[in-house]
TrEMBL record:
Protein name: MHC class II alpha chain N-terminal domain-containing protein
Organism whose genome encodes this protein: Podarcis muralis (Wall lizard)
Keyword Signal: yes
Top-level taxonomy: Eukaryota, Metazoa, Chordata, Craniata, Vertebrata
SMART domains in the cross-refs: MHC_II_alpha
Gene Ontology CC: MHC class II protein complex
Length: 175
């Protein structure tokens, strides 16, 4: 038998060998890094997207069911109009779609959202955060004031020394 290959350590426990009964690989299939598994070529993709949302504070509700094939929309079901909206009308000649199934999915999502909102500590009041207190900048202000003071003193001292040097040159006769 090959030596055990250890998977990631689980929270609260040690590593689990992948070839031991009861390990993740024995109950859930072979768990290997994605780089070792062959990836099948994907030719076509069919995507079904369902969503339901409620806007606050307007409480406007909307839901939609979207069906697309290879990143091209085939149809969507509008929750408010309760009807199919085909992207191209010619699609209706080749296939059909029961709008009630999509509306049932949207109704389940609406119910789930309402249950989650009731169970969460959600209030209808707008959350207004407190204004953040300003960060004290006393050290920066002191350093800035010292730098400014030294700069002004340097300008004054430089000007005085410049004129003294000019006066000394005039007394000696230098131009």
């Amino acid at each position: 038998s090959p030596p055990p290959v250890f998977l990631e350590s689980l929270p609260g426990g040690g590593p689990i060998p992948s070839n031991v009964a009861g390990s993740p690989s024995s109950c859930c299939g072979v768990l290997k890094p994605p780089s070792l598994l062959p990836t099948p070529a994907v030719e076509d993709t069919l995507v079904e997207l369902d969503f339901f949302q409620e806007s606050f504070p307007s409480e406007k509700k909307s839901g939609e069911f979207l069906l697309e094939f290879d990143n091209e929309e085939i149809l969507h079901v509008d929750w408010e109009k309760k009807q199919n909206v085909w992207r191209l009308p010619d699609f209706q000649r080749f296939t059909s779609f029961e709008v009630q199934g999509a509306l049932a999915n949207i109704a389940v999502m609406k119910n789930n959202m309402e249950v989650l909102m009731k169970r969460s500590n959600r209030t209808r009041a707008l959350n207004v955060s407190k204004a953040p207190s300003p960060i004290p900048e006393t050290m920066e202000n002191v350093l800035c004031a010292l730098g400014l003071a030294f700069g002004i003193l340097g300008i004054i001292a430089g000007t005085i020394l410049f004129f003294k040097a000019m006066r000394m040159n005039d007394r000696r006769g230098f131009i």
